[in-house]
Amino acid sequence: MANPSSRGSFPHGGWPTPITSELVVRAGARLGEVVVDGEDVWWSESRPAEGGRSVVVRRSADGTVTDALPAPWNARTRVHEYGGGAWTVSDGTLWFTEFTDQRLYRLPAGATTPEAVTPEAPVRAGVRHADLTVLPEGGVLAVRETHPSEHGSAADVVNEIVRIAPDGSTSVLVSGPDFVADPRPAPDGVTLAHLRWDHPHMPWDTAQLVVRAADGTDHVIAGGPGESVVQPVWGEDLALWWLSDRTDVWSLYRRRPHGEAELVVDVGSDIAGPQWVFGQRRFALLADGRVVLAYGRDGADRLAVLDRDGGLRELDLPYAVFRYVTAQGTAVVCVAGGPAAEPVVLRVDVDSGEPEVLRPARDLGLDPAWFARPEHVTFPTEERGTGIAEAHAFVYPPANPNVAPPEGALPPLMVVVHGGPTAGAVPVLNLEVQYWTSRGFCVADVDYRGSTGYGRRYRDALQGRWGVVDLDDVVACARFLADAGRVDPARMAIRGGSAGGYTTLAALTMRPGVFTAGASHYGVADLGALAAETHKFESRYLDGLVAPWPEGADVYAERSPINHVDALDTPLAVFQGEEDEVVPPAQAEAIVAALRRKGVPHAYLLFPGEQHGFRKAENIRAALDGELSFYAQVWGFGLPESENIRPIEVVRP
Fold first, then answer.
1. What 3-state DSSP class applies to 432?
2. Which helix (H) or strand (E) element contains residue 251?
3. Kind of pairing between the strands at 53-59 and 341-349
4. Both 495 and 570 in a single domain?
5. What 3 state SS string does 280-320 have?
6. Local structure of residue 62 (DSSP, 8 states)
7. Average pLDDT for 80-93
8. Is residue 69 a part of any domain in this protein?
9. What is the pLDDT at residue 524?
10. Are 304 and 313 within 8 A, CB to CB?
């Protein structure tokens, strides 16, 4: 770190930094699911440098780490479009869904070439598999999603639970509900637990836990209207465990054989999160009957051990987020991350509390002084009939040990709006955030009402109010920080992707005069078009967030940014994937056409080969640097010459 007395002075936004877009993607990987197979630990990595390929990695008992899935194989499923649960392993044999054709493949222990299990579908990627579970007798259980035609409607798509034998022959076990998930066979070999829900609900709104007995009869164990059940797990004693939010927060429940459902522990905050993807795990049953679980509190996760007598003991670990919590005997393996560390694969002996990093984070070669630390803040907002008049955010101040800010100058603010909208901000070191803070930006990652992690009441505050309370909250956050003298009110930007892109566009069109720049990454411009055109999983999502479709078409029109472009006079950058099935490119192009007609300064980048979210290194870099270049041109600061950032083309009147 440089001597503060020798630090240079540069305008906010143009600070020289080693946290470049090249560093963001260099050897970067997003860690996914973790599977324990005896003494071995397996996990997945999505690698931008390999075109976003999802690689399955194996760590053997002797510590040897190898890519179990050679290039160009890509273990990624498109079920629900968001995927998850694309692979699993048992006795060294890897089962996975290949992204290009969505067929199920198997890689036997010791083999190097995967072999196809399911036949090629008559329609490209028309039969998809997810949430895989290996059966003791061979083969797997899976959620199968069938698309009868390449361009069919969401109503044509069928979701089922199937048993797939090693020879590829398939039998349907559960069919009928609009959605199914988490097929979990009991240790007795005949009983099956699974989740189900129907339109217009999402799994975090209403989902049922169903047990199918040996005689084929279904028994609803938990869940129903106003209750979300997730993550069923069988114990060896045939007790069934799950998480339910019937007490406002997702808490741990259990049902012993022939017994009644009982609350095991309510920690006062959410253990689970919304089931956007398959394969999430926030608790695990240890071999000795104890339970390890992760839950949020004060803006950060805790990892704790629930003893057999009901005592709860938090483990003292330097991490703030824990995902894919998995048992390995009496140890726990998970993905963990914190404000000063990118995610790692971690194993923890729950008795000693000693952590062992199985897959370390990248060696960034940077002093920790380069990293802005998040502050969890709560700020007032409009109540709007929700019964809640406050919202939350993680605020990252500018951080650069080599720069002395100009005297009296305030930093620009970047309000980040997460996707979902039923998602949440996480306090994990993210170089994309540090890319901005190390250049002199203050970043506020907002958990507006509707976000997860604060209980069902907070989550449900967005019901019928998307496009209202989220706008109140992002505006309130910006004004809160400006009024506190922490940011420059003349240079406040808002950015977001997907649902966050919608809130970005809506804030600029329906709350004009607050933000002076914005960036929409595959954001929604027309709610009606989204309701009519999007994929099955989310095709009725807006019934709850906005109004029933099409009966509430007038509400959709009222809250669609594309219908308020007359008020849009804020410079805007738009980034879009050409193959996005969740928010099709027509949404981005509609808003760009409106900007062009109005003569508002704007930029537009369309990325071929990208779906919903950018995975390729070159596109991640182009979006980051392009957005920075856009703000530099709009607000009038220079870019560090050493990075050779090509200015994005800004269309001006």
1. helix
2. strand 251-255
3. unpaired
4. yes
5. CCCEEECCCCCEEEEEEECCEEEEEEECCCCCEEECCCCCC
6. T
7. 96
8. yes
9. 92
10. yes
**Residue 652 domain-assigned?**
no
Q: What is the pLDDT of residues 479-524, one digit of tens each?
A: 999 999 999 999 999 999 999 999 999 999 999 999 999 999 999 9
Q: What is the pTM of this model?
A: 0.93
Backbone angles phi, psi at 370, to 5 degrees: -75, -15
Domain count along the chain: 3
Same domain, 179 and 306: no
Sign of the CA dihedral with 591 first, then 592, 598, and 603 last:
positive
Confidence check: pLDDT of 1 > 50: no
- Domain extent for 172: 29-279
Dihedral angle sign, alpha carbons of residues 513, 514, 516, 520:
negative
**Whether residue 60 has pLDDT greater than 90:** yes
- Judge if 593 and 476 occupy the same domain: yes
* Residue 239 and residue 191 in contact, taking contact as beta carbons nearer than 8 Å: no
Nearest to 630 by CA among 650, 607, 651: 650
- The pLDDT tens digits of the residues spanning 13-48 come to 999 999 999 999 998 899 999 999 999 999 999 998
Q: Is the pLDDT of residue 155 over 90?
A: no
Shared domain check, 146 and 295: no
State the Cα–Cα distance between residues 603 and 479, nearest whole angstrom.
26
At position 212, the amino acid (one-letter code) is: R
Would you state the structure tokens that stand for residue 320, as one six-digit string?
Answer: 């703030």
